[in-house]
């Protein structure tokens, strides 16, 4: 119950965004662009500039890709058993294999694990954005109900234009080259980057307000939710067991794996017409269900209860 009470204020921020979108009808696309292109790169720069590089980064890269492909294999096997079409399988992959560790995961980690958890959350957010901009776009395009197929050049352009990665890259360069930044500059960078924390939470509420659930395909949505909310943290638990990182970092990675479906997958499914009704339903329902499943995962991994 304590975990639920602590998570509820975070959901209240989502609700503010939800109500604001329902009543004021904001241009969510432009707000998302502002968050992605203006605020998040500063947050990534600050994190990678101040967080000392270690061999652990290689394990984080292995983890984020390994978890994604493990879930893709699970969903693909189930799709074959159930005789789903290739396009339906791609939609289920979008619904199941990409977690919302950005505008949901980082605030949760900040509350339960403090700055240490938040810093790792930002690192994983950058890596997750890269995975979604490559693997996610591939399956969104492959599952399109139109004949238009995205080219490898289009995928590469998406990756190249990802601003969060540039912020992280610059942070790493500045750290490795020992380039000093004045306190006033770091304060400005921190203020801009930290502003993204609340903004992206409100934007998630706005995105959820635009989702419409119509004619749920219960068999597909049920397995997508099972894979996202249950199988994902189980797979993560098995993976981190063999990773030589601190126990608290293992806890954080498992918690991130239990996050609901990434909101960006809804945008991808709409853009490519990859069964957007299925993907958007998974995004909304997994976010609601996380109020039940996430406290259980936090309790199981022994997350500290903030006071």
Question: What is the strand and helix layout of this fold?
Answer:
Layout: H1 2-24, H2 28-50, H3 56-82, H4 86-96, H5 105-142, H6 152-160, H7 163-176, H8 183-209, H9 218-241, H10 247-257, H11 264-272, H12 276-300
Tell me about this structure.
It is a single chain. The longest helix is centred in the middle third of the chain and has 38 residues, at 105-142. Helices cover 79% and strands 0% of the residues. With 307 residues, it is an all-alpha fold. It has a single domain, classed as Na+/H+ antiporter like fold.
Keywords:
307 residues; mainly alpha; Na+/H+ antiporter like fold
In short:
This protein has 307 residues and is mainly α.
Give the class-level CATH name: Mainly Alpha
Cα-to-Cα separation, first versus last residue:
14 Å
Shape: globular
Largest sheet: none
CATH structural architecture: Up-down Bundle
Instruction: Estimate the helix proportion, in percent.
Output: over 70%
Q: What's the Cα radius of gyration? A: 19 Å
The overall number of domains is 1
Q: If helices are DSSP runs of H or I spanning 4 or more residues, what is the number of helices?
A: 12
